[in-house]
Amino acid sequence: MEVVVIILCSLIVIMALVYCVMKYYPTFGGNSSVRIRHKVSQPANYSKGKFVNQIPNTVDRSFKGTISILRDFIKGNPQGKPREPLPVESLQHIRKKGLQEAQITWFGHSALLVEVKGLTLLLDPMLGRAPSPFPLFGGKRYSKKLPIEIEELPQIDAILLSHDHYDHLDYGSIMQLKGKVKHFFVPLGVGAHLERWGVSTEKITELNWWDKVSFEGLTLVSTPARHFSGRRLMDSDTTLWCSWVIDGQSTRIFFSGDSGYGPHFKEIGDLYGPFDITLMECGQYDERWSGIHMMPEQTVQAQVDVKGKLMIPIHWGAFSLALHDWTDPIERALKAAQERNVAIATPRIGETVWIGSSSYPKSVWWKD
């Protein structure tokens, strides 16, 4: 009997500790459930307290599938990350206000600096060392430094977030950036995380799919993606995920966020294409979860669907979150693009791509 009591007491203590960590550890973010109930009235992508995709995710959640994934992650892949830290080009400039030339600088993974119409935007600025609520235990960034340190950045006109996963929305990065950001544009529910971290409500605009807003000469449109969300054990799909259209009239940009392949790409292309440049995810994939992350060949098809002129492949080159070789995404995407006559830029981390220029990075730097 005493043993049973000890076990029960131990379980209660463990559950209490887990509850306290989930509730009070700030990295997990805020609770969006009440916010969502007040902001939406059963739209097409919201049902029974959860956001849903246009078509269901084809993720293998069977016992056999789960065991196979767990086994493969434990086994690991010796080619899953670079043998040496990746070189990074230092960002030599920050746009002077009033310049109109549009340009994009990749920070690795899905973090990008976009300079357009005299504005400076950051997309999914995960600038931390590891995409984890406990960074000491997460897989580390491939490079030892960033193109520019956060404290050296000037005022940022806006941050656009695609969803609340740790490899896109980073607590430490936001805490360092929030004082120099004029406004945040996020999918529904994600604002709760920012508010918990001290960002004022007035600086946050939340959008549903197909909502659009004008911002200092730009039109920003939150467009669909095929993915999921969540930062805690029990909050899956309680915030929205999205892609973004950035329309500067003379310059049009598409940012895919995270997404499996789906009909939304053609819908976006029909409504807002063609795009001068696209930022398309092509990494961290597996056939077993292809419903939430595209295979590289699907990325190229998505580029065709949205009517993109030039593509920068993203969601690779910084972290290992899947089982493929770390160079597999870019090599497969390049091969598929050559077969489809699709233009792809391959910038090094920190290398700037000028939008509309006939000259763009094409080196195979990962083989150097």
TrEMBL record:
<dbReference type="GO" id="GO:0005737">
    <property type="term" value="C:cytoplasm"/>
</dbReference>
<protein>
    <recommendedName>
        <fullName>Metallo-beta-lactamase domain-containing protein</fullName>
    </recommendedName>
</protein>
<comment type="function">
    <text>Counteracts the endogenous Pycsar antiviral defense system. Phosphodiesterase that enables metal-dependent hydrolysis of host cyclic nucleotide Pycsar defense signals such as cCMP and cUMP.</text>
</comment>
<dbReference type="GO" id="GO:0008270">
    <property type="term" value="F:zinc ion binding"/>
</dbReference>
<dbReference type="GO" id="GO:0070290">
    <property type="term" value="F:N-acylphosphatidylethanolamine-specific phospholipase D activity"/>
</dbReference>
<dbReference type="Pfam" id="PF12706">
    <property type="entry name" value="Lactamase_B_2"/>
</dbReference>
<dbReference type="InterPro" id="IPR001279">
    <property type="entry name" value="Metallo-B-lactamas"/>
</dbReference>
<dbReference type="InterPro" id="IPR036866">
    <property type="entry name" value="RibonucZ/Hydroxyglut_hydro"/>
</dbReference>
<feature type="domain" description="Metallo-beta-lactamase">
    <location>
        <begin position="121"/>
        <end position="316"/>
    </location>
</feature>
<dbReference type="InterPro" id="IPR024884">
    <property type="entry name" value="NAPE-PLD"/>
</dbReference>
